[in-house]
Specification:
The chain has about 325 residues and is α/β, with parallel strands linked by helices. The chain folds into three domains: about 120 residues, 3-Layer(aba) Sandwich (D-Maltodextrin-Binding Protein, domain 2), CATH 3.40.190.10; about 80 residues, 3-Layer(aba) Sandwich (D-Maltodextrin-Binding Protein, domain 2); about 90 residues, 2-Layer Sandwich (Double Stranded RNA Binding Domain). It is built from eleven helices and 13 strands. The strands form three sheets. A five-stranded mixed sheet has the order 2-1-3-10-4, sandwiched between helices. Strands 7-6-8-5-9 form a five-stranded mixed sheet. A hairpin with a 6-residue loop joins strand 12 and strand 13. The two termini are about 35 Å apart.
Length: about 325
């Protein structure tokens, strides 16, 4: 091993730092002589909180400045939450590894005295900033009132009492990674709330031509998770969507078979399309594109155009 130092670029949020430090620890365990450091980089998504996401760059808001630092040679590897990663990369950079997935499900934290979200009273107030989550719950319970909440995990948990909410919805992965698993009231099955593309997985991005660095990090790639996420991202890319619209996709691998489900919905959950396809693991990307095409044939394009036309999108500061 010639390389003696490796610099990780990361956002400075609580969850992003946990993820980057986990990568750092795994590298140091595998390569005791390697000096690994973190470089905190403030992205545009961390600076702009009230401007519509669709107007200021979509998913790239959370990675652009880190990618620029990598291209300048200031950092060697970027650690991202996969659901923040755009489907296209700047010339010279590539997504090298996708890590084994943490629990991909959404979770609910309920007010005291309620054991499941289905028992919530009519017009219950649900805290979430995710249009994807809003759409799926409203599809099942149109009476619910969706309340936008912002901030990191701790802030959102506090909103339950501070904003007089009946429930808040977050990602299981963020709750577990930050040590809040004991506060989870209920895990939502993927049949109720299909996860965001890549939810629970981390992506390691690097310079395409940096063979030494790429050889050092290749052990992070988890083939089953990578297959599933490649299929999910193909759905997203074909639909030309981002984290600001109600699109979801989730893949699971059993043996050599990938089962991939995609979803497109209006924000109110009334216009709701969902489809599952199965394929060999080697055909993940092709199947993701086919699944998206089927959704488009069924009217997904019209739904998404209406969402873009009428909704106001907020930048979500924390990947939870």
């Amino acid at each position: 091993m010639k390389t003696k130092q490796l610099r990780i670029g990361t956002r400075a949020s609580q969850l992003a730092l946990w993820q980057a430090n986990w990568v750092k620890d795994e590298l140091e365990k595998r390569y005791p002589d390697l000096e690994v450091s973190l470089t905190k980089i403030k992205t545009q998504g961390d600076k702009i909180l009230d401007v519509p996401l669709a107007m200021v760059g979509g998913k790239g808001l959370f990675v652009k400045e880190i990618e620029e630092a990598m291209l300048r040679g200031e950092v060697d590897v970027a650690v991202h939450s996969m659901k923040d990663v755009p489907t296209f990369f700047p010339e010279g950079l590539s997504l090298r590894c996708i890590t084994e997935r943490e629990d991909p499900r959404d979770i609910v934290i309920l007010r005291p005295g309620v054991s499941t979200w289905k028992e919530l009273p009519p017009s219950a107030r649900i805290g979430t900033s995710s249009l994807r989550r809003k759409a799926q719950l409203l599809h099942l319970r149109p009476d619910l009132q969706m309340v936008d909440i912002r901030g990191n995990v701790e802030t959102r948990i506090r909103k339950l009492t501070e904003d007089d909410l009946d429930a808040v919805i977050l990602a299981a992965a963020g709750m577990k990674r930050l040590g809040f698993a004991s506060q989870i009231s209920e895990y939502l099955p993927t049949s109720t709330s299909l996860p965001a593309i890549g939810q629970g997985a981390l992506g390691l991005e690097s310079r395409s031509d940096d063979a030494e660095i790429n050889n050092l990090i290749d052990f992070f790639n988890h083939s089953e998770t990578a297959c599933a996420v490649i299929g999910e991202r193909a759905v997203l890319r074909r639909l030309e969507g981002g984290c600001q619209v109600p699109i979801a996709a989730y893949g699971t691998v059993s043996g050599e078979t990938l089962s991939l489900t995609g979803l497109v919905s209006s924000v109110d959950g009334r216009n709701f399309l969902k489809k599952t396809m199965k394929c060999h693991v080697n055909e993940a990307e092709k199947t993701g594109i086919s699944l998206a095409d089927d959704l488009l044939i069924k009217g997904a394009g019209k739904i998404l155009n209406e969402v873009y036309k009428h909704e106001t999108f907020n930048v979500d500061k924390e990947d939870v």
